[in-house]
Amino acid sequence: MNFKIKKILNKKNKSKIVCLTAYSKNIAEIIDKHVDIVLVGDSLGSVLYDFKTTRKVNLKMMIEHTKSVRVGVTKSLLVIDLPYNTYRNKSEALRNSKIALKNTKCDAVKIEGGTRVKEIVRHLVKNKIPVLGHIGITPQTTKGKFKSKGKNEIEKRKLIKDAHALEQSGAFGIVLECVYGDISKKITKLVKIPTIGIGASIHCDGQVLVTDDILGLTNAKIKFVKKYIDIKKLINTAVIKFKHEVKTGKYPTKKYSY
Ligand code: KIV
Questions:
Q1: Which one of 110, 173, 213, 231 is most buried, counting C-beta atoms within 10 A?
Q2: In which band, very low, low, confident or very high, does the pLDDT at 1 lie, cut at 50, 70 and 90?
Q3: Is 177 annotated as catalytic?
Q4: Is ligand 1 within 6 A of the CB of residue 81?
C-alpha cells in the first residue's frame, strides 16, 4: 500500500486529517506544507470556470489542472476527482483512473456515491487504484438545490449503508458532504476508515474545504465556509499600487531596469 495512504489510515482516532483543494501549482506549493491531502476537486468547474454544475467538468480539464498541482505537491497525498460520466461502469472507471494516474502521477482518485458505486470501487482497488469515497451531497448527481443529508431515518439509514459499502469495497476514506452531526458521528464510529467532513460537523476524522473559499477568493455564502483571510483585498491593494506607480512613472526605477 502507498505509504501516504497508510499514513492517512493511521491518523484515525489519533490526529485530525487536514485536506484542502488546489487547482494549480502556486496554491498547491503553499498548502502542501501544511495539509495531509491535496484534492484537485471538480469544484474547479464552478470556482474557476463559473459552471453552474460540476457535470460540465471533463477528464482533460481535471488532468491539466492536476499536472500543474503535482508540480507543487511533494509531501501530501494528491487526490484527483474523477468527473461526471467517467466512471459509469467498472471498465470505464478503471480506464479513466489509469489515464488520470499515469498522466498526473497523483496518488488516488475520488468518486461520488456509496452503494451505487461499490462494485466500481472494488474493481479499482483490486487493480491497485486507491479510492476516496464521497457521500452525503454528491454534486455530480444532484439535480436542483443542494440539501444537507441525514435529517430523517431513511436518509440516515442510507448514509450508513453507503459508508459500509465504501469501506467493504476497499475505499481508504470517505468524504461526508453536508451531513448532520449526529449521523457523521455515528458513521465515523462505525467505520474503520477515516471520514473527512465538509459541512459535516466536528465529529469527522478530518475536514476539507475549498481553498479559494477560505482565502476569500470566491463569494461563497455557504454555512460551513469560514473565510480565514480576504485575499481579494490584498490583491486589490497591490494592483492599485502598481497601477499608481506605472501612471506616475515611479515604476520601474533603476533597480528594476536593465
Ligand atoms: O470538488 C471538490 O472540491 C470536492 C470537495 C469540496 C470535497 O469534492
A1: 173
A2: confident
A3: yes
A4: yes
